[in-house]
Design brief:
Strand order of the largest sheet: 3-6-7-8
Oligomer: single chain
Shape: elongated
Radius of gyration: 35 Å
Largest sheet: 4 strands, antiparallel
Helix content: 10-25%
Strand content: 15-25%
Order of helices and strands: EHEHHHEEEEEEE
């Protein structure tokens, strides 16, 4: 139900004075909400709060790695797998229970994972252009013209391989996904689907002028006539 985190940048946005609320990173909050647990940030200058976790590294090093040489990763994994049953049969020095029995009870108390994993992605807000294209990373991506309007803000969720465009407000069916494209390589690339252009104005309905428009004659100044600005000397100004 709760996971204790050290004050790492992926969880804590900035450090605050003792007693103040710790501002959490939005991605960490979204990750915790997706898997339904609370974040507990470890207090500053409190090394004993995470000592049990780091102790496991020393235990594995002393009982599996020390004094031995391995020629491959598979050989090292086999040594670790052979040692795990010995470790699980021991009595833990803190809760005084057999480690294997306690582990089975802890695993049974865990919540089930959601069907879809949490998507770690860049998130940005970008406006939609008049041509139903959105600029991101120096490239253009299309969205369905019938589902958006010009200057509407759309949320971009970008991974290393995909760019997903979501509406900020769900539709009547509760969906927010507008389009999904492969992420372009380089800059100046336009990634669009032909079906997204359906609904854009074609210009056929614009009002046009019929007939001839009379042209008004222009009054030209005679050649050699140069207009000069009127300058008033100080003496010609009217004094009160």
């Amino acid at each position: 139900m709760t996971i204790v985190y050290d004050r790492t940048k992926t969880v804590v946005r900035r450090h605050v004075a003792p007693g103040e609320a710790v501002p959490l990173h939005p991605e960490a909050v979204g990750f915790a909400g997706h898997y339904d647990f609370d974040i507990d940030v470890l207090a500053a200058y409190r090394p004993t709060g995470k000592g049990r976790v780091e102790r496991q590294v020393l235990i594995v090093r002393d009982h599996v790695l020390s004094g031995r040489a391995f020629s491959s990763i598979e050989e090292m994994d086999a040594a670790f797998t052979a040692w795990v049953p010995q470790r699980r049969a021991q009595i833990h020095k803190t809760h005084r229970e057999v480690i294997g029995h306690r582990a089975a009870r802890d695993h049974a108390a865990l919540k089930t994972s959601p069907p879809a994993p949490y998507l770690v992605a860049e998130r940005h807000l970008r406006p939609v252009g008049k041509d139903c294209l959105i600029a991101f990373g120096g490239n253009l991506y299309s969205v369905p013209a019938r589902k958006v309007r010009p200057r509407q803000l759309v949320e971009i969720r970008a991974t290393k391989s995909q760019v997903m465009l979501h509406a900020t407000v769900p539709d009547p069916h509760g969906e927010t996904l507008l389009a999904m494209h492969p992420r372009a390589v380089g800059r100046g690339v336009r990634v669009a689907e032909e079906s997204h252009w359906d609904g854009l104005p074609t210009g056929k309905g614009r009002r046009t002028t019929t007939g001839e428009v009379p042209v008004q004659p222009r009054h030209h100044r005679p050649l050699g006539c140069v207009s000069t600005p009127l300058r008033l000397s100080v003496e010609s100004q009217v004094k009160p």
